[in-house]
Amino acid sequence: MIKKPLNIMCTLVLFLSFTLIGCTKTNESSNKNNTNNSSTTQSIPDKTFTLDELKKYDGQNGNPAYAAVSGIVYDVTNAEDWHNGKHKNGITAGKDLTQEINQAAHGTKVLNNLPIVGKLK
Fold first, then answer.
1. Are 68 and 96 in contact (CB under 8 A)?
2. For 34, how many CA atoms within 13 A lie in the half-sphere containing its CB?
3. Within 10 Å of residue 69's Cβ, how many Cβ atoms?
4. How far apart are CA 76 and CA 79, in angstroms?
5. Closest Cα partner for 93 from 54, 61, 120?
6. If residue 85 lies in a helix (H) or strand (E), which one and from where to where?
7. Bridge partners of 73?
8. For 12-33, what is each residue's pLDDT tens digit?
9. Closest alpha carbon to 63 in 77, 80, 83, 45
C-alpha cells in the first residue's frame, strides 16, 4: 500500500523539478531581454549627424524629434512619452541623451521599438 503514495510523491517531485527548471530558463531569457543594453535588429541608416545638426531635430516648430543614445540617433517624434520634443520627465530632443537614459529606470529597452534614423559623429 505504501507504493502508491510513494509513486505519486515521486511523480509530484519530478513534475515540480521540471516546472522550476522551465521557469528558471524562461526567467533567464526574459532577464536578458530586459537589460539596459539596447540591442536592435534594425539596420542603421548611413545618415550621420553632428551634435550641431542634431540640435535642429528638437521637435519644435514642426521639426521631428531625434535623440542620440550611444552613437545611434532615434526618432522619438511619435514615442509615447514624448510631446513636441519634450519627454514627460523634462528632457528634450535634439541632444545626445546617453547619460540620461542610462540613469533612467527603464534603461535602453524603450529604444527597441523606435525608428533609427542614423548615427552620431
1. yes
2. 8
3. 21
4. 5
5. 54
6. none
7. 68, 118
8. 454 444 444 454 444 433 443 3
9. 77
| CB 121 within 8 Å of CB 52 | no
Alpha carbon 100 to its chain's center = 14
Q: What are 68's strand-pairing partners?
A: 73, 96
How far is 82 from 88, CA to CA, in rounded Å? 6
Beta-strand ranges (E) seen in 1-121 are 48-49, 66-69, 72-75, 82-83, 86-87, 95-96, 116-120
In the numeric block, which cell numbers belong to residue 84?
513636441
The amino acid at residue 35 is T
User: Tens of pLDDT along 57-108?
Assistant: 999 999 999 999 999 999 999 999 999 999 999 999 999 999 999 999 899 9
